[in-house]
Amino acid sequence: MTGTYPEKAQPSASRLLRHLNVMTLVEGASLIALVLIAVPIKYGLDFPLAVKVVGPIHGALFVWTMGVLLVSVIAGRLAISKGAGVFLAALIPFGGLWSHRLLDRELAHHEPKSPVK
């Protein structure tokens, strides 16, 4: 038994990492929307509603992404060092692109090679 999951409830490495891979892009896009669109609208146009809408959406996506990241690390699907990198990248605009690339490589490592026809 690995981590805290019973043997039958173990999420597959590729499924968990694909989910995290998508979430890093979505969360990263929400951070970019918050920092580069909503905040300038708030202060430049004196329209705080933009941040009141985009901020909680980004917050929920961040928490969801960190939950999937935590499960991936605890389940042993992602090394702690790579998990720390994904976490730190989530704090930086455009860091989601770096995480996506890292997770693409990790997925290629976990998924079986398909036979060439």
How would you characterize the overall build of this protein?
It is found in: Cell membrane. Residues 18-104 form the DUF3817 domain. The chain crosses the membrane at residues 20-41, 61-79, 86-103. Keywords: Cell membrane, Membrane, Transmembrane, Transmembrane helix. It is a single chain. The chain is mostly helical. The chain has one domain. Helices cover 72% and strands 0% of the residues. It has helices at 13-44, 49-74, 80-89, 95-110. The chain is elongated. The N and C termini lie far apart (37 Å). The mean pLDDT is 89.
Set down the secondary structure blueprint:
Blueprint: H1 13-44, H2 49-74, H3 80-89, H4 95-110
Subcellular location: Cell membrane
Transmembrane segments: 20-41, 61-79, 86-103
Domain DUF3817: 18-104
TL;DR of this structure?
Keywords: Cell membrane, Membrane, Transmembrane, Transmembrane helix. With 117 residues, the protein is mostly helical. The chain is built from 4 helices and no strands.
